[in-house]
Amino acid sequence: LASAYMRERNEKINIPGDELRQYYEANKDKYTEAKVKVLYIPFRDANAPVHDSEGNEIPTESEARAEIEKVQAALAQGGDFVKLLKKHSRHKPSLEKDGDGTLRKAQALPEEAMAVFEMKPGQVSQPVRWTRGSTGYYLFRLEQIETKTFEEARPDVWNTLKDARHEAWLKEVRDQVQMRILNSTYFSPATAAEGA
Fold first, then answer.
1. From CA 68, how far away is CA 93, in angstroms rounded?
2. Could you write out the DSSP letters of every residue in the chain?
3. In whole angstroms, what is the distance from residue 169 CA to residue 180 CA?
4. Residue 93 in contact with residue 37, Cβ under 8 Å?
5. Which of 46, 59, 98, 137 has the smallest set of CB atoms within 10 Å of its CB?
6. Residue 53: partners with Cβ closer than 8 Å, 6 or more residues away
7. Which of 76, 70, 73 is nearest to 123 (CA)?
8. 58 neighbors 44 (Cβ within 8 angstroms)
9. Angle formed by the axes of helices 2-11 and 150-176, to 10°?
10. What is the pLDDT of residues 4-50, one digit of tens each?
11. Which strand ranges, in their side-by-side order, compose the sheet holding 136-147?
12. Model confidence over 62-95: pLDDT tens digits?
């Protein structure tokens, strides 16, 4: 019954178009992404295994840094980024797509990765040292930056605001609920054991 009431309440949420537009304009970063080519060279920390799950040796940080600098030098001499990433990168998801990846501006990215959003298409980032999740060095070549139009983002904006309103309503309901314990011995260990 409670679930049906919540669903009905959620379906009745109305958000005016101007409020949707204001949210979109104030949060365009959430709808901005960089299409990039990704080259990734992992490194292990002192406590990590020497080999990955496929038996490949994981380089130390200094070895990974040397390899990424070697790639940078090859790029500076006109090397092809895609050919270099196919030779050096260990980022399997993007390797399957010739290095294609996406960075979202609203993600919590290292400062060096955020520099991608200031680059011009075709430019390559400085090495980005990443220590969350996949620890290693990344190079990103910017392909293009896209920001969804308001109309493209409208369903996401609407869902975000609807969810926020629903959560605010739930909090208000929870705050109004007052709980009283009429029989505190009911929750004592002895009572629980007797009931078992």
1. 19
2. -HHHHHHHHHHT----HHHHHHHHHHTGGGGEEEEEEEEEEE-B-TTS-SB-TTSPBPPBHHHHHHHHHHHHHHHHTT--HHHHHHHH---HHHHTTTTEEEEETTS---HHHHGGGGSPTT-BPPPEEE-SSS-EEEEEEEEEEEE--HHHHHHHHHHHHHHHHHHHHHHHHHHH-----S-GGGGSHHHHHHH-
3. 22
4. no
5. 46
6. none
7. 76
8. yes
9. 140
10. 656 666 566 788 889 999 999 999 989 999 999 989 998 987 777 78
11. 100-104, 32-42, 136-147, 128-130
12. 999 999 999 999 999 999 999 998 999 887 777 7
Pair of tokens at residue 9 = 């309440």
Residue 48 identity? A
> What amino acid occupies position 114?
M
Unique residue bearing structure tokens 């409020």: 19
CA distance 70 to 26: 42
Total-model pTM: 0.70
For 160, the token pair is 């975000």
Q: How many residues does the chain have?
A: 196
- Residue type at 25 in one-letter notation: E
